[in-house]
Design goal:
Blueprint: H1 3-32, H2 35-46, E1 59-64, E2 72-75, E3 81-84, E4 88-91, H3 97-108, E5 117-123, E6 128-133, E7 139-142, H4 149-155, E8 168-173, E9 179-184, H5 186-190, E10 206-209, H6 213-226
Parallel strand pairs: 6-10
Antiparallel strand pairs: 1-2, 1-5, 3-4, 6-7, 8-9, 8-10
């Protein structure tokens, strides 16, 4: 390699490094200026989530604190009803566990002196969540038992090295059927500083793991430099050569 080619290569590499420095600076600036997104995520996390409503096929535990002989474990029938001792046919589909608890308490008040009842959804029937983005196995997950965001990511094979771990989106249908977005910082959940962000998923929730800023820079380099500049120019140069 003659001196002229070395000078050209040095200039070319300097130009590439300059472009990358601009990109990295822009990425850092976008992170520093992301306070509106952060405040929005905090507002979403502090807002009450839509409570789960019982559906046909769900398995329920009905527990009587002072009358354990009446405890039941049963499945909601396709018509949305359940059958209990002393209460007979009760429509439970469409009710939240708390609403069904209140209904059962009123039904049993004439039969028991102190009806202390609780309703637990033991397993969900046909409920699904979706996970996409920078995970190893994106797709659909069956929500058979309660599942948190972190558990869903684990079921999807974990995040890729290109994942943006501090900004994972959970998209949920709100009370008015409009999408509500929650943001989870996976790093803070794992180190235990903010475990409350690892919320329980609801049916049809979407977990989306975006790419990190560095990963986006790598994509840019691959698309606009490696694929558009002939490989014979500059890339065989050793920075340590004199």
């Amino acid at each position: 390699m003659d001196m002229t080619e070395k000078i050209v290569n040095r200039k070319f590499i300097a130009a590439i490094l300059f472009i990358l420095s601009i990109l990295l600076t822009a990425c850092a600036a976008s992170v520093r200026n992301s306070s509106p997104v952060a405040s929005t995520s905090e507002q979403m996390l502090s807002s009450p989530a839509q409570e789960y409503k019982i559906r046909a096929g769900d398995q329920l535990d009905i527990k009587f604190f002072y009358n354990p002989e009446l405890n039941e474990q049963l499945t909601v029938r396709p018509d949305g009803r359940i059958s209990l001792q002393l209460a007979h046919e009760i429509t439970s589909a469409g009710l939240t566990p708390a609403q069904l608890t209140d209904l059962l308490t009123k039904k049993y008040v004439s039969e028991l002196d102190n009806p202390e009842i609780t309703v637990i959804v033991r397993s969900f029937s046909g409920q699904r969540v979706f996970i996409d983005g920078e995970v190893n196995k994106p797709g659909m997950l069956n929500l058979i038992t309660p599942m948190t965001v972190l558990q869903s990511i684990s079921e999807a094979g974990g995040v890729k090295d290109t994942a943006k771990r501090n900004e994972i989106f959970i998209i949920r249908r709100g009370l008015d059927n409009k999408p509500v977005v929650f943001v989870m910082n996976m790093e803070k959940v794992i180190d235990g500083t903010e475990r409350s962000q690892d919320i329980s998923l609801m049916p049809n929730d979407i977990v989306y793991v975006p790419k990190s800023s560095i990963a986006n820079v790598n994509v840019w380099v691959d698309q606009y430099i490696r694929k558009n500049i002939p490989l014979g120019i500059g890339f065989g140069y050793n920075l340590n050569s004199q």
